[in-house]
Amino acid sequence: MKVTFKDGIESLSGKSGNMIFKTYRRGGKIDTRAYLRPLGGYERSTPVTEKEMACREKFAAFQKFWRSLPPDNKMRYQELWEQDGFTYRGKQYGTLRGYVMARYYALDLLA
User: Fold this and answer.
1) Is 107 left (phi over 0), alpha (psi -120 to 50) or beta?
2) Are the C-beta atoms of residues 77 and 100 closer than 8 Å to each other?
3) Which of 42, 49, 53, 102 is the most buried (most CB within 10 A)?
4) Tens-place pLDDT, residues 32-42
5) pLDDT at position 48, please?
6) Sequence-separated (6 or more) residues with CB below 8 Å from residue 109
């Protein structure tokens, strides 16, 4: 369902009861959407796989690495990110955290 707001309401985001409102800004256009969600919430219908657990553990390990990264190392990664044109292995990253995560997953860390 698409909702259009008028009379000065530019955007709406959040939850109310079983409704979720999201505002998207792309290419200068503002699009606000409303979604219905189940009253009981979302329940997973399949068990978690070993591969999914491994991915979660890898992500958790990166989170711990990122939070414990000293500021001087973050600055070194920032310099490398800028030198590389905000890309790593052909993919452009919009945040330093994403760039460092890609390097972490590739085991390409600072010495």
Assistant:
1) left
2) yes
3) 102
4) 888 888 777 77
5) 95
6) 103
pTM summary value:
0.64
SS3 call for 54: helix
Confidence of residue 5 (pLDDT cuts 50, 70, 90): low
Written as six digits, the tokens of 28 are 């200068």
What's the token pair of residue 111? 């010495």
- Tokens representing 98 are 């994403």
When pLDDT is averaged across residues 21-41 and rounded to a whole number, the result is: 82
Alpha helices in 19-95 (DSSP H): 50-68, 71-83
What are residue 5's DSSP bridge partners?
none
What single-letter amino acid sits at 102? A
